[in-house]
Amino acid sequence: MRLCNMNKSLRHILLLAFLLPVIMPAHARYFRRAGNTTGLNGDNYHFGYISGGLGYTSLQEEVPDFTPSGDLGGLVGFGYEFRNNSLWVSAGLQLGFHRSKAQLEAYKYDCNGYDTQGKEVTLHYTINEQDRQKWQFIEIPIMVGWYFHGFYVGAGPKVGYSLNSRIVSHGQYELSATNELYNIEFKNMPEHGYTTYDFEGEYVASLKPMISLIGEIGYDVLSEVPTRSQICHVLKIGFYFEYGLNSMVEPVSSNKRLSIDTKDATRVQVNPYLASGMTEKYRVVPFYTGVKITYLVGGSRTARASGYHKGCNCYN
User: Which residues of 131-147 are buried (b: 16+ CB within 10 A; e: fewer)?
Assistant: First the structure.
């Protein structure tokens, strides 16, 4: 399996992710309430949260001559998080926005046909294609993790269902021909239709439910805690990643890679690779990495009932 090449956006995101453990502890004192921060004292903490993130999305694939590259993606969601001592569990609902690009160079397709004089020839199509994919998913992420002195790490599964999928495709195909009577290839002959043609279009891909492995690592920043209400306000900033476990594209066997007009060989419908039946042979999975920010609000029912007012000790 070939991993897409890193571009500048991905390198910047990874650099920020590695700097987070250095930046956040140095600035946490401006947000954290002074007091006991040694643990939860056996309390269970319940939070509601909202989250958002931006990152680099792309595809990993096993398709020969199919070169994907990344684009900007993101997520926005809400959910519930439970904490006890150093353990935390979360579940939520989010919208995932995945975008990617792909280039397919010098794809060749041959078929039998006729030239302008009605003689039987072998037609050769050479296709250069550039696609831009946009996927939108409704997703259910579940994570389990641990805290240690404000740092946190977690991982779990995520299930996603497609809401919208679009592929914008454009490119060129070159038409040439050979004849059994001649040992030459007829090309660059516009008067006979052997030349280069442009194509473009927008298509819909059929996507399967997506199962992914997700993970997050970052730092917890606590705000001031009102001592009367015992409400905790927590800001989590971390590095988030996602990797698909199943092939996301449903092969559409009725969509041929090329649909050629039987009366005019120069008229060709080029279906994008990911919107054709050819994906049945290969595995295509999403890849995402970026920065995620989560705001949590909640507290401990036990602490409020007992009149405990030493602050919101939401991590070890």
Answer: bbbbbbbebbbbbebeb
How big, in percent rounded to 5, are the helix, strand and coil portions of the chain? 15, 60, 30
Mean pLDDT calculated for residue range 55-62: 81
| Rounded-to-10 torsion of CA 250, 256, 257, 262 | -170
Q: Copy the structure tokens of residue 275.
A: 């919107």
Predicted confidence (pLDDT) per residue in 8-47, tens digit: 444 544 454 445 444 444 444 433 443 333 334 456 889 9
Q: What is the spatial distance between Cα 174 and Cα 28, in angstroms, rounded to a whole number?
A: 60
> Measured at the alpha carbon of residue 284, what is the angle toward residues 278 and 288, in degrees to the nearest 5?
155
> What is the DSSP code (8-state) at residue 276?
S
Give tens-digit pLDDT for 214-267. Answer: 999 999 886 555 455 567 888 999 999 999 998 888 776 666 777 787 677 788
- What is the gyration radius of the CA atoms in the chain, in angstroms? 27
Nearest CA to 258 among 164, 167, 165, 129?
A: 129
Cα dihedral 183→186→187→190 (10° resolution): 170
| CA pair distance 224, 33, nearest whole angstrom | 5
- The mean pLDDT of 181-207, rounded to a whole number, is 86
- Distance CA(81)–CA(142), nearest Å, equals 10
Q: List pLDDT tens digits, range 80-135.
A: 999 888 899 999 999 999 888 888 777 888 888 887 777 888 899 988 888 888 88
DSSP calls for 141-166: EEEEEEEETTEEEEEEEEEEEEEEEE
Count the neighbouring beta carbons within 10 Å of the beta carbon of residue 120.
10
For residues 184 and 110, what is the distance between their CA atoms, to the nearest angstrom? 16
